């Protein structure tokens, strides 16, 4: 893909030669789409971390068990398995409370 000369020059701090092209066509860019954070997040898979807060499944389960964060379990009547959803705002509130405790210590 890259020539050895290009890699060597870049490593030595030389700027690579870039071919410039011009156009007369008007180019418009679409507005950025801002996605709001979800209200609920699903527990991550075992040995993985939540993409919104970075906490692992075990840590989130222990926070749920001791009441530090709020969650809800969705399952059909008579079923053993369901889906556990955690209120993202309660995780954020918990993390902020830990930050305040650390500042006062």
What topology does this entry show?
Elements: H1 4-11, E1 40-42, H2 57-65, E2 71-74, E3 83-87, H3 88-104
Antiparallel strand pairs: 1-3, 2-3
Order of helices and strands: HEHEEH
Number of strands: 3
Q: Could you name the ranges where pLDDT drops below 50 across 5 or more consecutive residues?
A: none
Structural class, from secondary structure content? alpha+beta
Whole-number radius of gyration? 25 Å
Enumerate how many helices there are, as a single number: 3
Major sheet attributes = 3 strands, antiparallel
Helix content: 25-40%
Spatial arrangement of strands, main beta sheet: 1-3-2
Overall mean confidence score, pLDDT:
83
What percent strand? 5-15%
Span of the ends, CA to CA: 55 Å
How does the overall form come out from the CA principal axes? extended
What does this structure look like?
The protein is an alpha+beta fold. The protein has a domain of 70 residues. 32% of the residues lie in helices and 11% in strands. It has three helices and three strands, in the order αβαββα. A three-stranded antiparallel sheet has the order 1-3-2. Strand 2 and strand 3 form a beta hairpin. The longest helix is centred in the last third of the chain and has 17 residues. The radius of gyration is 25 Å and the shape is extended. It starts with a helix and ends with a helix. The mean pLDDT is 83.
């Amino acid at each position: 893909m890259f020539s050895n000369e290009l890699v060597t020059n870049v490593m030595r701090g030389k700027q690579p030669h870039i071919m410039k092209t011009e156009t007369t066509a008007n180019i418009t860019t679409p507005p950025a789409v801002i996605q709001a954070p979800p209200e609920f997040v699903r527990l991550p898979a075992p040995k993985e971390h939540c993409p919104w807060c970075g906490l692992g499944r075990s840590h989130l389960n222990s926070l749920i068990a001791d009441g530090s964060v709020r969650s809800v379990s969705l399952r059909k009547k008579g079923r053993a398995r369901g889906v556990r959803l955690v209120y993202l705002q309660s995780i954020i509130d918990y993390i902020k409370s830990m930050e305040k405790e650390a500042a006062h210590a």
